[in-house]
Amino acid sequence: MSLINHLGLTQACELLGLSRPQIQLAVDYGLLRRDPGTRSFDPAQVREIVTRPEPFHTALAAARDARARAEAGRRRALARRREAERRRQGALCEEAAARVRARVPGREHGPERAVLHLGPPRSGRTRAVVEVLAGQPGTGVYATALPGHARQAYGLLRARLGSQQVGLATDEGRVNAQARVLCCTPEFVRPAADVLVVDAVEGDALARLLLAGAHRAVHVTGVPRDEALLGAFFARAGRGPGSGQGPGAARLEAVGHQRAAPLTLAATAGPGEVRPGTAVVARDRACAHALHRELLAAGRTATVLYASLPAAVRAEQLRRLAAGEVDVAVTTAVLGRDPVPPLAAVRFAQAPEPGGWEAARLAAYADGVVGEYRTALPVTPPGRRLLRDAVEAAADGGAAPGRGRLPLLPGWEELGAPAPGEIPHALAAWRKAAARALTGHPGLYAQWPVALTATWQAARMAAGAGPAADAPWPVDGPTVWRLITLPCGPDGLFPDIAAAFLAGRSLTGLLRPGSEIASLPLPDAETYAGMLRELRPALLRLGEVGGLSPADTAAGEAAVVRRLNELLAGSGPLTPPPACVCCGTPCAPWEEHCGQCRCAGG
Questions:
Q1: pLDDT digits (tens, 9 = 90+) for 525-575
Q2: What are the C-alpha distances in Å from 456 to residues 277, 460, 471, 487, 514?
Q3: Which of 74-78, 356-360, 457-461 has the highest mean pLDDT?
Q4: What is the per-residue DSSP string for 28-88?
Q5: How far, CA to CA in Å, does 570 sit from each of 304, 439, 547, 560, 564?
Q6: Which stretch of DSSP H or E encloses residue 445?
Q7: Angle CA 359–364–368, to nearest 5
Q8: Are 389 and 351 in contact, with CB atoms under 8 Å apart?
Q9: pLDDT tops 70 at residue 406
Q10: How far apart are CA 144 and CA 184, in angstroms?
């Protein structure tokens, strides 16, 4: 029908005696139709409404009621479909939960021999267990939660046994990993060997080895207060997972190790008085940089150690301290994650968190003096009483709190081989099953909080999968489990890694060219190093991801380590003094305003 034979909105209003809003209601409820091309009305339809016997408002009400009934029917049908789907999904979740089994680890046969090497840091306990591995002819494993200590043991054993006999496997890389003797972090431990050495039981993986591994002899290091817990472990080592009974406990021995150098609580010393070879403890990175500036202003040479620096950079700075290239290393509580050379003194500018036991742990790395560091910064000093207690605790082996219980975490086989969408339901069921299973092991295990659901959710978003338990994923359940148990959480690089692994997104844009890395300022270099530190274990465990392989990141890691070491070797401050955002005058590194502006409400 042509435009001339159509009625416009104004004409329709006049013929029908309706307002424009009423016309719109007639259109909304299907009493009137607009031509989609002309947006005008069919005169025949308008005449039909005009000549209709019932009033327009009656027809409109009837149309509204009909639509409401139809909409209610649609809602009821949708609710029925949703309820049916909810029931179906519930049945799937119950089925997944029924397959879950929480197993408290237990050997069918205990180790023939278990030796506890108990003592504080600097007591020779690590070297003693390394000597055990070096002196035995069979297969052996040195396991520790700290990659730096695995590297140190690898170096010591390689010097004794030769490079062909010793291997190294951590998230930082692998060397000769099939060797007769392997130094590694927990995820790379061989479940069977003649001798297992566990250097400090930290985390679920190492705890499970003590009861579930197949090793003829086990040597464990710890502090004296660990003896009761470790003794309880080995007393149960012969109780298998079936009936709870077994052929008996391991033959248990305890060897005490004493510090070679006594600790002395010394008087407070300031920047110009501390001895070369001293570590000064700060609470965080900002305070460490402020103390570094203070030491330089006093004419001392100094460097810094904190967690955002790569392990290779921290190792180089500790080497510089040991070699006398710098007088002082300003460190946070990261001290001890890496092998620590002999320190002339450990001095505290602040009491480290979370309290006295942390101070004791750090004090234990001194070979002589422990004391307070006098600073002009507005910090709360640790106090002589805390330092005295720390010295006493470190000297008698109490440099860390005794481990009350060890964590229990699920393995994939315990989750009942869930489909990718069933994993959160399997985890929830495992937590309940673990609580029941742990009732028979009082005081030995703690059910570790499993925080994998948020990581799974990030993986689901990356995969574009639906929330249903049987929603299709691009990979199978074991692969999703391997992905979400990577050592990086959903707040870091994990979403990018998951998108690359599950959806084929490229990661090549994360890498910087070497020329750019060589000019990065300190904060950017630390951030880039942190990104590579998250990326490396994903590439090692998953293979090529997003167009990157471990070899692709190696050059970037080497370049950023060189850049950071270059920056830390400079003679000037690492960061400028912090200034008040209001007036620009100097202020504390953890404050945005100086005292005057803060009091004035700035």
A1: 999 999 999 898 889 888 899 999 988 888 899 999 999 999 999 989 998
A2: 46, 6, 14, 13, 34
A3: 457-461
A4: HTTSS-B-TTT--B-HHHHHHHHH-SS-HHHHHHHHHHHHHHHHHHHHHHHHHHHHHHHHH
A5: 12, 58, 36, 16, 10
A6: strand 445-447
A7: 115
A8: no
A9: no
A10: 7
Q: What is the pLDDT of residues 247-276, one digit of tens each?
A: 445 578 889 888 877 889 999 999 999 999
Say if residues 280 and 379 touch (Cβ distance below 8 Å): no
How does DSSP classify residue 302?
Answer: E
User: pLDDT tens-digit profile of 471-499?
Assistant: 999 999 999 999 998 888 788 899 999 99
Rounded CA separation 171/494 (Å): 16
- By three-state DSSP, how is residue 547 classified? coil
Euclidean distance between CA atoms 595 and 578, whole angstroms: 13
- Give the separation between CA 53 and CA 429, rounded to whole angstroms: 67
CA distance 123 to 380: 32
Of 205, 239, 226, nearest to 116 (Cα)?
A: 226
Q: Which residues contact 406 (CB under 8 A, 6 or more apart)?
A: 201, 204, 207, 229, 233, 444, 445, 446
Phi, psi of 240 (to 5 degrees): -75, 170
Contact 142, 150 (CB under 8 A): yes
423 neighbors 414 (Cβ within 8 angstroms): no
Q: How far apart are CA 586 and CA 590, in angstroms?
A: 12
Nearby residues of 585 by Cβ (< 8 Å), 6 or more positions away: 579, 594, 596
Token readout for 303 is 């460097």
Find out whether 305 and 331 touch, Cβ atoms under 8 Å: yes
Which residues are within 8 A (CB) of 522 and not within 5 positions of it... i.e. 6 or more apart?
564, 567, 574, 575
Q: Specify the pairing of strand 166-170 against strand 173-175.
A: antiparallel
- The 3-state DSSP class for residue 215 equals strand
Which is more confidently placed, 131 or 488? Answer: 131
- Between these two residues, 208 and 504, which has the higher pLDDT value? 504
Q: For residue 476, what are its two tokens?
A: 């199978």
DSSP designation for 226 = G
What span, in angstroms and rounded, lies between the C-alpha atoms of 458 and 490?
6
Question: Token digits for 527?
Answer: 């951030």
Alpha-carbon dihedral sign for residues 354, 360, 366, 369: positive
